[in-house]
């Protein structure tokens, strides 16, 4: 009797250790079963690659300007020197990206990353797990070329098609959407693994649960996440707490059902946040697309990550900086072509706060010494079109102008533009503000080259690709003193400013005046510093940083499971 009691007690006491141990063992057995099932597909893939390489020529053609050297050269140094994995590494890099044909900013990152990997490891195989059944490899590659001007090397790129993508669509889960999608991503990733177990597994869409499952099943496959946006943020959790207090305080929603539901909802969020933190903490290499995302991911995943793990780092997504640099000159000479114009490129959305910008511009105008071309005399001519921009050599005008360029996507946008026009009218500055809706790229480019100042009125913008474009074009930026524009983009370069930060209408007006009042030398110097600042966001810098993180992963892979299956 005593023996039974004692052994029961012992089992109960040990169960916290036995159960996880049993689960881990089971998952590993399952993992190695899945891996052995996919070995033949792996061999086929390498066979295909080998014959394609023989037909199409070995590595990706390295352009004459030595792209390849540059990519290797600007590593940020997370892999110890002299310990760099060599060019010959021949593994399978799996990219989990169920919506790879979407053609958005997230996809640009995916393709730029794949191209960098193809250059660094010419014999490695990149595999994209996608749910886009209806599109063939050639079509996808062509679209990437057309849409992003990114040339992929077909022989070492393969697509594996997932059949369970509907499990991650938000429409599948009317309730508990986040949890549903996350659990759905487990099914989707299992689908992926049964197609092929990669040597390195990377997610660029925010499926941390999939990476967690990979680690559980295949502990020796290094994982990486490129995070664009946290699935749940600290702000959300805090706002939930706040609204809870509010309802308590006001006592309006004192009904038992509401209280109960509120509590349940709060619990759900906290459970989800816990799961998200847990899954995220198991990822080997974590990159984020901005400082804003980095700080959120740090507070969610950081505390649970092992202290020896790699730091969570920002890898800015590639922006088409090079193109603007070649199209727009910046020099004392080109300064003659610049007009004292303020340019604001942004969709006509409330958060972009065009109202504020128009009001501060009006304040600027009214503070100027009275100029001969009085603004208040109404003119019959309609809003000038971009082709009628006066050339600086023909007009002596030094009167600043505000140019608002933006896309108008729906009726709400149209109404907003109408209201802004009314505002401009009532402020008596109709002649000084130009609206350009749905401008074509050449028109935008012309204004980027001819204006003097680039404006952004949004508060707490996470990044601000538009501001990078201002800098690349040599515009002096005036941005809100918050978010990415302040923290990431309009920063000091070589001890000098690249633009101005402002918070209020007065501060914006002052910044406009300060920017326009700079001497020609100061202006050119600031434009050149702005350009330098924008260079941190080029495709080349992205590729360099990406590769340095990949080198960490490849080293890890070689350490964890040395002999790779020899190809062919
Ligand atoms: C595409 O990229 C190449 C260099 O990779 C560049 O020379 C070319 O101008 C780009 N084309 C466009 C339309 O941006
Ligand atoms: C990061 O990703 C989010 C979500 O797609 C996007 O809103 C943000 O602009 C991105 N940041 C950068 C630096 O591109
Ligand atoms: C625009 O800016 C003003 C002035 O700072 C502010 O009061 C207002 O809330 C802003 N509007 C939006 C939509 O951000
Ligand atoms: C600009 O940023 C400051 C500081 O973050 C903020 O207080 C202010 O409301 C912002 N202004 C606008 C117009 O959004």
From TrEMBL:
Catalytic activity: an alpha-D-Man-(1->3)-[alpha-D-Man-(1->6)]-beta-D-Man-(1->4)-beta-D-GlcNAc-(1->4)-alpha-D-GlcNAc-diphospho-di-trans,poly-cis-dolichol + 2 GDP-alpha-D-mannose = an alpha-D-Man-(1->2)-alpha-D-Man-(1->2)-alpha-D-Man-(1->3)-[alpha-D-Man-(1->6)]-beta-D-Man-(1->4)-beta-D-GlcNAc-(1->4)-alpha-D-GlcNAc-diphospho-di-trans,poly-cis-dolichol + 2 GDP + 2 H(+)
GO cellular component, one term: endoplasmic reticulum membrane
Catalytic activity, EC: 2.4.1.131
Pathway: Protein modification; protein glycosylation
UniProt domain ALG11 mannosyltransferase N-terminal: residue ranges: 91-301
Compartment(s) where it occurs, according to its Swiss-Prot or TrEMBL record: Endoplasmic reticulum membrane
Extent of Pro residues compositional bias: 375-389
Entry membrane topology: Single-pass membrane protein
Region called Disordered, residue ranges: 368-397
InterPro entries: ALG11 (IPR038013), ALG11_N (IPR031814), Glyco_trans_1 (IPR001296)
GO biological process per UniProt: protein N-linked glycosylation
Main location: endoplasmic reticulum
CDD domains assigned to the protein according to its UniProt record, in alphabetical order: GT4_ALG11-like (cd03806)
Leading EC class: transferase
Keyword line: Endoplasmic reticulum, Glycosyltransferase, Membrane, Transferase, Transmembrane, Transmembrane helix
Record has Protease as a keyword: no
Any one GO molecular-function label of the UniProt entry: GDP-Man:Man(3)GlcNAc(2)-PP-Dol alpha-1,2-mannosyltransferase activity
Family: Belongs to the glycosyltransferase group 1 family. Glycosyltransferase 4 subfamily.
Physiological role: GDP-Man:Man(3)GlcNAc(2)-PP-Dol alpha-1,2-mannosyltransferase that operates in the biosynthetic pathway of dolichol-linked oligosaccharides, the glycan precursors employed in protein asparagine (N)-glycosylation. The assembly of dolichol-linked oligosaccharides begins on the cytosolic side of the endoplasmic reticulum membrane and finishes in its lumen. The sequential addition of sugars to dolichol pyrophosphate produces dolichol-linked oligosaccharides containing fourteen sugars, including two GlcNAcs, nine mannoses and three glucoses.
UniProt name for this protein: GDP-Man:Man(3)GlcNAc(2)-PP-Dol alpha-1,2-mannosyltransferase
Species of the source: Tothia fuscella
